[in-house]
């Protein structure tokens, strides 16, 4: 049995949820998000609580039970608080700045890298060595942060590159004479 799926998801004040068939739509102060569950689970809203129950005892139904509960919990978290990923840039001459909706990255290439923020995500650069990606869709925020990080991943010898805040980079010793 799913330990995660058993827990009902509570709706905080200011958040409403509506179920139509297999789709749940959650409205909150930051926006509206929806999720369509598979036919293996049943969604219901009762007394400001969203409950997910499996249809049957098959392995797939039990897998979808926990996954659907987590997706609904993430929808509610997104429309109330939002999601945030922080990146930091390390390296001499490496910097970032916002120009309108475009993030300009100077990462040691012969050209500047221009990254246009997709809709639903806001990118800010409070310092030249910090980037903050925020939005209500957890998957989209993580994907945008990963794409920015991919422009210059941290290397293990000097630690230069773009890393997540608090990320540990295993350092290697250089070549010996």
UniProtKB/TrEMBL annotation:
Gene Ontology terms describing biological process: cytoplasmic translation
Presence of the UniProt keyword Ribosomal protein in the record: yes
Keywords: Ribonucleoprotein, Ribosomal protein, RNA-binding, rRNA-binding
Coiled coil: none
MF annotations from Gene Ontology: rRNA binding; structural constituent of ribosome
Span of domain Large ribosomal subunit protein uL6 alpha-beta: 12-82, 91-164
The keyword Cytoplasm belongs to this UniProt entry's keyword annotation: no
Its job: This protein binds to the 23S rRNA, and is important in its secondary structure. It is located near the subunit interface in the base of the L7/L12 stalk, and near the tRNA binding site of the peptidyltransferase center.
Subunit note: Part of the 50S ribosomal subunit.
Protein's recorded name: Large ribosomal subunit protein uL6
Organism annotation: Ruegeria intermedia
């Amino acid at each position: 049995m799913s330990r995660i799926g058993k827990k009902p998801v509570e709706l905080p004040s200011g958040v409403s949820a509506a179920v139509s068939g297999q789709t749940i739509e959650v409205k909150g102060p930051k926006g509206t998000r929806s999720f369509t569950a598979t036919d293996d689970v049943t969604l219901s809203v009762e007394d400001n609580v969203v409950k997910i129950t499996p249809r049957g005892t098959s392995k797939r139904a039990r897998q979808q039970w926990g996954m659907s509960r987590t997706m609904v919990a993430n929808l509610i978290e997104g429309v109330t608080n939002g999601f945030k990923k922080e990146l930091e840039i390390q390296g001499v001459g490496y910097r970032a700045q916002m120009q309108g909706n475009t993030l300009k990255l100077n990462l040691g290439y012969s050209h500047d890298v221009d990254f246009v923020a997709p809709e639903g995500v806001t990118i800010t650069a409070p310092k030249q060595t910090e980037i903050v990606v925020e939005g209500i869709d957890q998957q989209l925020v993580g994907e945008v942060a990963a794409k920015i990080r991919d422009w210059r991943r941290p290397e293990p010898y000097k630690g230069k590159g773009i890393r997540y805040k608090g990320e540990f980079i295993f350092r290697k010793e250089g070549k010996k004479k």
